[in-house]
Each structure stands twice: as structure tokens, then as C-alpha cells.
Design a protein that fits this description.
It contains five helices and five strands, in the order αββααβββαα. The chain has 174 residues and is of the alpha+beta class. 39% of the residues lie in helices and 24% in strands. Strands 2-1-5-4-3 form a five-stranded antiparallel β-sheet.
Length: 174
């Protein structure tokens, strides 16, 4: 029994009570921390899904830790099968280790399961201020044909043909 005055309690019993209280407090703190971490993870997943680009998060070992549905579709592999895969399998032409700028953009080939695609890639280095070293990457993928279509629509350089333009006036064809 743990009731009564502290003068009547053995120090060993008091130590056990304090230890139990500390353990319970730590368990509650861990549970709250886990809930907060899961909440942040769900917010991150929701944010990734709302982006208009294929989006991948890589750890320092260049393995995929987060991916959105669009990137999974571009790679033609289910999301669950992409997690913990090395990015070098899909972006063979990029040397992530030697990227020194915080933002790196290029057009390259995405090596997919059934086909290869020309894509634009934006790579953002994520650096922790304390360590002053790159700890992860955010990779944004956009199919090149979509970029070209957007640019052509924006600047108004679309071809407009009518049937008369195609038929022509060759006497041999008429």
C-alpha cells in the first residue's frame, strides 16, 4: 500500500514509487510524441499529394522515403514497392553525391518499368543547419512533353491547319 505519511515509508518503497511515476510519465510523453510524429507524417503525405509534380523525398543514402501518387504513376510502380529503393535505378544520369547547389534543374531520362521518359527534374538539397551537410533531397519530376505543351500554349506557338492547307494544289493529286 502506498498511502500514509512519508515518515512511515521505507526508502526502498519510496524509490519504487518515484521510479514507477517517472516511467509512467515517460510512457505518456512517448505516446504523445508518437501521435505528433504521425500527425506530421500525415500532413506531409497530404502536402505531397496536392503537388502538381511527381515528388520524391530521399534520405542521405539516396533511398526513397516518401513518394506521391503522381511519381508512382510516372515510374509505373506501386508506391509501396518504391519505398526504400535507391533513386539511381530510375535517374541513372544524375550524380546526387556531387550536387553542391541547393537547387539543381535539368532535363534527363527517367528509366521506368515499361518505358523511358524525358523529364525535367528539380532537385532541392535539404541541409540541417546544425550539421551543415546535406541530409536529404526533395526531387520534383515533370514530364517534358507537358512542359513543352504548356510553353507552346503560353507563347501561342501552336500550329493551326485546315483541310485546305493539307490538300495542297498538286495536279497529280487532284
Amino acid at each position: 500500500c502506498l498511502s500514509g505519511t512519508c515518515n512511515n515509508v521505507h526508502l526502498h518503497t519510496l524509490g519504487m514509487a518515484v521510479s514507477a511515476a517517472t516511467s509512467i510519465t515517460q510512457q505518456i510523453y512517448l505516446k504523445m510524441s508518437h501521435q505528433k510524429t504521425m500527425e506530421i507524417k500525415n500532413q506531409l503525405k497530404t502536402t505531397l499529394e496536392t503537388l502538381q509534380n511527381g515528388t520524391l523525398l530521399l534520405n542521405k543514402d539516396l533511398k526513397i522515403t516518401q513518394i506521391n501518387t503522381l511519381a508512382s504513376q510516372m515510374l509505373q510502380i506501386e508506391e509501396k514497392n518504391l519505398l526504400n529503393q535507391e533513386i539511381g535505378i530510375f535517374l541513372k544520369d544524375i550524380d546526387f553525391i556531387n550536387i553542391t547547389s541547393d537547387l539543381y534543374n535539368l532535363e534527363t531520362t527517367l528509366y521506368c518499368k515499361n518505358s523511358n521518359k524525358k523529364i525535367f527534374v528539380s532537385i532541392h538539397r535539404i541541409t540541417y543547419p546544425i550539421a551543415q551537410r546535406c541530409s536529404s533531397f526533395l526531387v520534383l519530376l515533370k514530364e517534358a512533353k507537358k512542359i513543352h505543351k504548356f510553353v507552346n500554349n503560353f507563347i501561342g506557338s501552336q500550329a493551326h491547319f485546315t483541310f485546305d492547307d493539307i490538300v495542297g494544289s498538286s495536279h497529280a493529286i487532284q
